[in-house]
Every structure is written in C-alpha cells, then in structure tokens.
Amino acid sequence: MRALDSLILSVASLDADVILVCDDPTGDLLSAALATGKPVLFLDGDYHRSMAARDAGARIAGDTRLDEFLAGSSGSAVAVGEMPKSLGRLDYLARSIAGAGYSSATLVLGANNKHLTRSTNAVLGESFTDVAASLGRGKFRCLVATEPRAVNYTPVESNGLVAVGGVFSGAKPDFGGELLRATLPAALGRFLDLGCGNGSVSRALTGDITATDSDADAVLSARALGLNCTWDDAGSQFPDASFDTIALNPPFHDGTTVDSTLVQHLLDAAARLLAPGGTLYLVHNSHLRYRGDVEKRFARVSQAARNDKFTVLRAS
C-alpha cells in the first residue's frame, strides 16, 4: 500500500454508517472500505476503476452526477480519497457530499504537501464548517473536513460549455481542440469524438454525432450540451468499423507529468472503429511527435493543420 493511502486510512475513522470512496487510483482505499462490511459508495469517475469497484461489491456513482447519486442520504458518512488535482473536482465532491443529507459527514483527502494550498482549504471551507490539516507523515498530509454546510452543486457554464467536476479544460475551449474542430470536413458521415472531454470539439456539429469518454465528469459535461455521449473504455461498446470520421484530442498528461504513451490505447481504438474509407483527425502538441505512432496503424498519414503549438494529423 502506498504511504499516502496508509496515511489517509490512519486519519479517517471507518466506523460511520456508510463509507464513500472518492478518487482512488490504487484501489487500496476501496479494499479497506469493503473489508469493514459497511455499505461502500464509489465516487471515482474513472471507468476502469469504477467497473472494478462494482465487481468488488461497491455501489458506483458511474455516469450519474454525484449530487444526484447521493441526494436524500441519511445516517453518518466518512469519505476518503486522494486529493483531486483540480479545484473543480474538489468542489464537486465536497458540495455533493456536504449537501447529501447525512446527519454527519467527514471528508478526509490526502496529498503531497506541495499540492495542498490555501485554495484547497478555501474550496473545502465553502462546503464544511471545519477544515483542518492532519499531522504529516513524510511528504504527505491530509485535510479533514467536518460539519457540512447547507450547500448544493451547480456546474460551471461559460463559452457555450458546461463543466461538471474536474473535466479537462473546464468550461473553456481547449486550444488544440479548437484547431482540430476547425480542421474537420463539412461532410462527417458517422462521426465519433473519441475522448470528448467537455465536448468542445463536437458542440453544435450536426448529423450523426456520437461522443465517448472514460471519465464520468467529461461524459456529464458533454451530455449537458445535448451530445449523445457514452461512458466506456475508448468506445469499447461500439462494433468495429462504426464511424466514417473520428476526432481525437488525446490526453498527454498523467497528473502533471507529460506521458505520450497515453495515446496508444486510443489510437488502437480509432483503428478498430474507423470504417473502410474513413478518416481520423488527431491533434497533438507538436513537440510530442505522434506521427510515428499513427503511421504504425494507418496507411496514409498527412499533416492537415498546424499552428505555433499544435499539429493536426489526417489518417486513413
């Protein structure tokens, strides 16, 4: 078990009526919660982790908004998790838990000391009366929030977009996504936005438009725009050769670390899902040089657009 997960579990008391597991990258917090025999609600929005939690016996929020999933709760609750990397996700979790209706609720979130700022305390303080830091262990510490306030959650709306929780780019168009959107042809046919994020690439497109993402916050944000969006693993629920045009604006950060390997799984999915004669449009930061990875999977690859930071590749 990671030192961080061990610290979170040592600070939190798992003797409440229900245990809420928030962001849980390793699954160790889930295992500890299930071992108590108490009801466990899994609030992590990651598709893979959620499926594993469901199979292990937890009730998952899945692609339901957290405030709606928890509404009308009663009894006592303790929530544990790794501190979200975005303040938007933190606010979403805190407001959803505080406003759920529990007679008492304690939220324990752990992180590296350098990632705990006045802003994290302030966000928690909007939903809980008492926010305090635990004793540190090595380079880690927890924030403990108690005494829920009477709050509710409202997604951020701006620029014609809706941001639920910690969706990438929030309620703002992503610069790379905007270049990708401008490069798409007028005739899309059956179109898939693969890894759609906040839906900024697909918004207002007309025709046979589908979006998908493995992050529940992204799915909910895209659906708020009226998009037909699925929550799954890289379009895994769709048959082979289902789409004529695929747009891909892949993640290239794992947290704060650049990780160009994150695109591999999505490229494999694009190759499987693209119909004969179809076209993939992929945008990436130019310095990451994804062209070689695309050429391994597609016979014809060309540069469709480029600006001072991003490149769009066309592949078929």
UniProtKB/TrEMBL annotation:
<keyword id="KW-0963">Cytoplasm</keyword>
<feature type="domain" description="Methyltransferase small">
    <location>
        <begin position="162"/>
        <end position="314"/>
    </location>
</feature>
<keyword id="KW-0808">Transferase</keyword>
<dbReference type="InterPro" id="IPR002052">
    <property type="entry name" value="DNA_methylase_N6_adenine_CS"/>
</dbReference>
<keyword id="KW-0489">Methyltransferase</keyword>
<dbReference type="GO" id="GO:0032259">
    <property type="term" value="P:methylation"/>
</dbReference>
<protein>
    <submittedName>
        <fullName>Methyltransferase</fullName>
    </submittedName>
</protein>
<dbReference type="GO" id="GO:0008170">
    <property type="term" value="F:N-methyltransferase activity"/>
</dbReference>
<dbReference type="GO" id="GO:0008757">
    <property type="term" value="F:S-adenosylmethionine-dependent methyltransferase activity"/>
</dbReference>
<dbReference type="InterPro" id="IPR029063">
    <property type="entry name" value="SAM-dependent_MTases_sf"/>
</dbReference>
<feature type="domain" description="RlmG N-terminal">
    <location>
        <begin position="17"/>
        <end position="146"/>
    </location>
</feature>
<dbReference type="GO" id="GO:0006364">
    <property type="term" value="P:rRNA processing"/>
</dbReference>
<dbReference type="Pfam" id="PF26049">
    <property type="entry name" value="RLMG_N"/>
</dbReference>
<dbReference type="Pfam" id="PF05175">
    <property type="entry name" value="MTS"/>
</dbReference>
<dbReference type="GO" id="GO:0003676">
    <property type="term" value="F:nucleic acid binding"/>
</dbReference>
<dbReference type="InterPro" id="IPR007848">
    <property type="entry name" value="Small_mtfrase_dom"/>
</dbReference>
<dbReference type="InterPro" id="IPR046977">
    <property type="entry name" value="RsmC/RlmG"/>
</dbReference>
<dbReference type="InterPro" id="IPR058679">
    <property type="entry name" value="RlmG_N"/>
</dbReference>
<keyword id="KW-0698">rRNA processing</keyword>
